[in-house]
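If it is no trouble, might I ask you for a protein's amino acid sequence along with its backbone structure tokens?
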Amino acid sequence: MNKPLIVIAGPTASGKTALSVDMAQKIGGEIVNADSMQIYKYMDIGTAKPTIEERCGIAHYLIDEIMPSENFSVAQYCERARFYIDEIHSRNKVPILVGGTGLYIDSIVYNINYGECISDENYRKELNVLADEKGNEYIYEMLIRIDSPAAGKISVRDRKRIIRALEVFYVTGETITQHKIKSRLNPSPYQAKIIAIDMDRQILYHRINKRVDIMLELGLEDEVTMLKDMGIDEGCTAMQAIGYKEILSYLRGEISKEDAVSAIKQGSRRYAKRQLTWFRKNKDIEWRKV
């Protein structure tokens, strides 16, 4: 019999932390993070990582897992998340997967294998050079021509995932969409109940704007400066997260602080819209209006 798994998903700033902690207290649950930025150490404010107080004594896993300078693939996430979920089950607790990264959630719930062993380092380097010379848009158009379903789920700014999809096709002759379909033939070990938070769009956007203001008050600028002083490469995935890249531009004197804050708010609202689009496509989700 498949093991139970509760999933709480939804856009940024929608209240996933409070809901998950409340549920964990009521049912004897423990929480596994499904937010791609909260896995990084030292990135607390800009990722809205739940504080010790907000966790209310509930165990949280896959938070502060790796350094910002480290690469972290979907396959690595799945390996660690499944380990923690099994550990929670072994103690007769209920695992609650919580976050807004749809790719992570789908990987666990539907047991998707992304074929991380499929690789060609030389081709990957060629694509990076091509993107440097002609822009991400050029390699994104390449992906649209061979795998438009995959391109539709990837932002043109996400060079890493664009290249990954192209690499899989180059090595195997099959698109990454085809690989995902095949991998779903393997049944999931979990019986998942997926809950997503839904709220009025204008209320959500107000919450996002307010959260960004609070991040600045708590010291987001100091956090970014600290990461720079630690020697974290400004071009790495972690430092290109919303909130960090805009403050970096401000610190380099490229934009004003006012423009940086405005860009963070706009980027966060757009991200929330993309998250909702992703989750709306999942017919297994039970939407909870708040």
Remarks:
- The longest strand covers residues 190-198.
- Strands lie at 3-9, 29-33, 60-61, 94-98, 190-198, 285-289.
- The chain has a mean pLDDT of 93.
- The two ends are 33 Å apart (CA to CA).
